[in-house]
Amino acid sequence: MTHESIPRRSVLASGATALGISVAGCSGGSGSGGGGGPTVGILEDRSGNFQLNGTSKWQATRLALEEINENGGLLGEEIEIVDPDPQSDNSRYQELTEQLILQDDVDALWAGYSSATREAIRPIINENEQLYFYTTQYEGGVCDNTIFPVGATARQQLGIVTPYLADEFGDDIYIIAADYNFGQLSGDWVNVLAQENGYNIVGEEYIPLDETDFSSVINRIQSEDPDFIMSMLVGANHENFYDQRATNDLENIPIGTSTAMAQGHEHIRYDPPALTNVYAGVSYMEELGDLRDGENFVDAFYERWPDANYLNQEAQNNYFSVYLWADAVEEAGTFDQQEVISVLEEGRDISAPSGDLTLDGATHHMEHEMRVARADENHEISFTNNERIGPSFLREEVEGGDGCDLREEDKTTQYVPSDVYDV
Amino acid sequence: MTPLTFSAYSLMALLFQFLNSFGFIVLATVGLAIIFGMMGVINLAHGEFILIGVYGTALPYHAGVPLPIAMVGGVVASTLFGVVVERTIVRRFYDRLLDSMVATWGLALVVSQLLLIVFGSSLDSISTPLGNVDYGPFSSSIYRSIFLPAVALLVLAGLYAVFTRTEFGIKARATIEDPETARAMGIDTDRMYMATFAIGSGLAGFTGALYAPALGSITPNRGSTFLVESFVAVVVGGPSVIVGTLSAAGVLSVFNATGSFFFGTFVGQMLLLLVAIVALRALPDGITGYVKDWRQRRRAEE
């Protein structure tokens, strides 16, 4: 973009987001707005419903950017950070996203915990062609020009844990999931895996996000007596399921999950046996440490944030994706977003705390090292069944098998399992 | 999802589901009902009063205090908080319904943000005590489905005794009914308001203390967990605190329990709200308001 266009856009922005600007005043006054140097935006929740997961995402993003600045910055320039708190509020996210793009002119954006948030800001991202890293594990399928969803997708997470549990315990599955886009689509993915492998879905239930009482759910599970449960419950209210499970002595029915433990660290916050025999399909958990030679991400994290609760899977995604972006900027020799995206689309290898990963240029998704994390009767975590899984849904299955290739064509879409499968 | 089939066991499961829901609604509502029914203040910070009870219980519990004693801490904390809030804020809003909503909503935001700043993003949760009762293929939590509903009934009975059988109760009701005459009769109405508000917030804290081990995660935004059910119950119950709470909780939990038992939690929640909408339309003064009307009409006819 040219320099002349910045003031005009700023004027537009101040009109459109008058409220947002007044709020920015309280956020540390870091919005210099076209001050010349590189600027990175971070919108991660430090209060409200998602603060438990969002806080460590924010902390890890800051850690990576501060490390880069301490080592001389990027292209010889110090990176400025703009990071107001979106407070788990989607309309606030929309205001702040506009503000960060139009007023602060960010060169890259890390934003949002839930899929609902991502979808709320995606039109703004598309309209402004903003380079955006979405780092939460999610239902998958987003194929979008300027968006890099670097978290593991449902196909990667559920694809590692569901077959493992079916092999160990049997084929009868009971699905419980949160009743919104992420939970519904994750449930579809379990159904896809069941079709592919011949498992039986003996029950399936989508639970409103504000539900805290699971006694009827537990009674239904008892009446169906599945070999294992697949749980894609989300948020603080739903965690109560694990406690009620322990109260009703259900810990002998194993649970597979893509959401528990790796994000909300329930295995630490709850007394055993609430999470005993919960198996999570994860790309990373703090207990994994740092698999790179001579580095210790976990120590560095707690040194920078002594009061932090947990270093979750999403925080690791934020951390390595900042370095992924920085690498691409170095190679491009510019902060220009389109040029950085072109470099990223060539595909890149990156050494992350969770292992050696590869960015798939065509789909903007990661090939992750996936593993099954199990909590034992003392909530100790062990990892098994390590496997490298790529973004096969977008690469090989959508568009009648041609896959989505963002290097070839412009797209701002999200594919869902029912585009390909009969679910 | 598969609806459960009828059998003696599944009827028992339904009964326990009902008791669970009944206990929750009564306990979530009772503090709010007293403050609204007796003082005309809509306390939108009700969830946060309960949350103070939760934190007041969880903090000493995690410091090694046995759970029943820690629960006393929760009640004390919320009662003291209630007195301070009454003296500084709420006393300016008696019988100013809308103003009281804005003020207490602001208070709710302040409390939950302060809890976040002071105690961090979450406290470790407390396991539900007392285990479960097994029957056929099913089981239910003794704490949630037997203990809490029994406590809920005891609380209502206790309130009935306090407000009808004690001198304090008579004075409090006189103050609410006609403050000027009450003052002329030598009642310190200012103190009565404070005491009633303290009872309301103490009961909210008691609910928090009881649910601290049945809430799962303890985070600064959990206050909202209690808000919907309590407001719906107050609206459906109407002006009479005790009978209103009891009858509303009874009606609502029948629908909530049956819906979630046979068709899933989503239907259970929808039925609860649907009943509230129908009640608002058909019985604008709630169940007890309707009963009072009906009695008056019958008396007039005679």
UniProtKB/TrEMBL annotation, chain A:
Signal peptide: none
Annotated SUPFAM superfamilies: Periplasmic binding protein-like I (SSF53822)
Gene3D superfamilies cross-referenced by the UniProt entry: 3.40.50.2300
Pfam families: Peripla_BP_6
InterPro entries, per database record: Leu-bd (IPR028081), Peripla_BP_I (IPR028082), Urea_ABC_transptr_substrate-bd (IPR019968)
Keywords: Signal
Superkingdom as given in the UniProt entry: Archaea
Residue intervals of the Leucine-binding protein domain: 39-378
Protein name in UniProt: Urea ABC transporter substrate-binding protein
